[in-house]
């Protein structure tokens, strides 16, 4: 009889387990559990407001300012790129205000993933965590390819040429100076820089943050030098008409071009949310996280606008559809001594951007592992360095392979799509949390709710709608793959982790 009862219970347990694996969970993680995780986490609290602000600046100032300014000016907005930058900045500020309240209220590593778990539940948390891989991991690979381009150009100027076949992904067609056509084999510089960043992160967040702070100061000084030296060469003729007439096609100059330019330059601003992923390594997250998020946005907005005005004032916007617009601007001034400094600034700037993006990705993996949605190894912390070393190594290897072997010509749009979706969920989440947890202490309160959140979500949704249909299809495929993993593995493991907690 006892044996029959045990068999019956076993069959019931198996049916329940199978059912749980198939039925998505809307379990919301209580605020008390999130705060307990924050206090008990073994991550080392070593970051102050300066470190967090430079983490944000390091993530924001990168591919956007060094590359996309020329593309958006020459193809979309002309001199009115300044207006585009302001529109993009306003959208980011609304999202940034929402991030600031949530980051101070829930000072736990994981960024939008953690916020979704506290507001809309486990299923949406998994979706956003899976989606954030598009923002952080693929951004590492994309930026690494951009870094490799500037680095090989700088080395060539110094007489240290890298064979083109070893600086491009397989299948990429290249034309040598003598006219010979060759194909890329592997982008070694891109792979090396990703692995170097991963190694640096393994040895400690404080060392990594201090390195990032130094690199940020260098690249900001280079951009300030560009603005200061180039201002004397600005001509009014290059800035008129300020809004070039539309060509008859949406997005090509005129006011539609200004809006399309805002969509392009939105990519330049993303990265401030990386500050929130370091919440559990901040000494005083309730105070310092909002400072880091909002200060980095404000500083970068001023720098972006100044650089755009000077660049377009030096070079007619029609000539800026190049991969190194700042170098073109320096050449136009005749200040050839400044060209290598700009390239050095780009190399250092993109390095620090890779650094911050990888910090964000590994901390999201860390949080998802502690919640049971990913294997336990992603949550292991090194006993000496206090960093999620296994997650960092795995992330570095995968990102290095993608950077070295993939011709990444569409990933920037995927990165934008993933980021915008994260911003939308954060803007929605803050309104939900105000209703579901009205009495929870909020060291920073977003002003103007719910309108700030609504406007932030609408601006981000508008940017998503403007992205190509192919990017939407890739997003759908990625999310479907994520749901298969969730139903087949993550759902059941998370339930078991909760059961023994």
Could you explain how this protein is built, in words?
The chain has 501 residues and is mainly α. The chain has one domain: Up-down Bundle (Amino acid/polyamine transporter I), CATH 1.20.1740.10. Helices cover 69% and strands 1% of the residues. The protein has 17 helices and two strands. Strands 1-2 form a two-stranded antiparallel sheet. Strand 1 (173-175) and strand 2 (181-183) form a beta hairpin. Helix 5 (81-105) packs across helix 15 (411-436), helix 7 packs across helix 14 (389-405) and helix 9 (205-230) packs antiparallel against helix 13. 52% of the residues are buried.
Q: Name the overall outline.
A: globular
Structural domains: how many: 1
Q: How many strands in all?
A: 2
Q: What's the total helix number?
A: 17
Terminal Cα separation, in Å? 33 Å
SSE order, as H and E? Answer: HHHHHHHEEHHHHHHHHHH
């Amino acid at each position: 009889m006892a044996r029959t009862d045990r068999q019956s219970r076993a069959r019931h347990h198996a049916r329940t387990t199978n059912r749980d694996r198939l039925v998505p969970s809307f379990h919301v993680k209580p605020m008390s559990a999130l705060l307990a995780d924050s206090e008990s986490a073994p991550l080392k609290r070593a970051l102050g407001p300066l470190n967090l602000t430079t983490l944000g600046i390091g993530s924001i100032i990168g591919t956007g300012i060094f590359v996309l300014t020329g593309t958006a000016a020459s193809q979309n907005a002309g001199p009115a790129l300044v207006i585009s930058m302001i529109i993009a900045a306003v959208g980011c500020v609304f999202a940034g205000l929402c991030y600031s309240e949530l980051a101070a209220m829930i000072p736990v590593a994981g960024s939008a993933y953690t916020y979704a778990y506290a507001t809309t539940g486990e299923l949406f948390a998994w979706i956003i965590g899976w989606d954030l891989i598009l923002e952080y991991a693929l951004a590492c690979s994309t930026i690494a390819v951009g870094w490799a381009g500037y680095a090989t150009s700088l080395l060539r100027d110094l007489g240290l040429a890298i064979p083109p076949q070893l600086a491009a992904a397989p299948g990429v067609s290249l034309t040598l100076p003598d006219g010979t056509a060759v194909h890329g084999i592997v982008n070694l510089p891109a792979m090396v820089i990703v692995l170097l960043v991963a190694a640096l992160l393994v040895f400690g967040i404080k060392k990594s943050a201090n390195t990032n702070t130094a690199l940020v100061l260098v690249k900001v000084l280079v951009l300030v030098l560009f603005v200061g030296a180039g201002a004397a060469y600005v001509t009014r003729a290059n800035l008129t008409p300020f809004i070039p007439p539309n060509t008859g096609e949406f997005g090509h100059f005129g006011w539609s071009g200004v809006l399309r330019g805002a969509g392009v330059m939105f990519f330049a601003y993303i990265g401030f949310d990386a500050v929130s992923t370091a919440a559990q390594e901040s000494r005083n997250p309730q105070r310092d996280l909002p400072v880091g998020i909002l200060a980095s946005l404000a500083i970068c907005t001023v720098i972006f606008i100044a650089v755009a005005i000077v660049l377009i004032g030096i070079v007619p916007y029609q000539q800026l559809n190049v991969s190194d617009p700042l170098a073109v601007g320096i050449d136009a001034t005749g200040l050839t001594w400044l060209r290598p400094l700009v390239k050095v600034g780009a190399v250092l700037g993109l390095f620090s951007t890779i650094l911050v993006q990888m910090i964000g990705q590994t901390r999201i993996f860390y949080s998802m592992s502690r919640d049971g949605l990913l294997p336990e190894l992603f949550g292991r912390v090194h006993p000496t360095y206090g960093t999620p070393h296994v997650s960092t190594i795995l992330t570095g290897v995968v990102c290095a392979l993608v950077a070295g072997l993939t011709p990444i010509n569409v990933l920037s749009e995927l990165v934008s799509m993933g980021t915008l979706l994260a911003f939308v969920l954060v803007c929605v989440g803050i309104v939900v949390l105000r209703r579901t947890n009205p009495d929870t202490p909020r060291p920073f309160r977003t002003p103007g709710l719910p309108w700030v959140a609504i406007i932030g979500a609408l601006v981000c949704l508008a940017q998503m709608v403007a992205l190509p249909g192919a990017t939407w299809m890739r997003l759908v495929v990625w999310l479907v793959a994520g749901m298969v993993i969730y139903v087949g593995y993550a759902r059941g493991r998370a339930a078991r982790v909760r059961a023994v907690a």
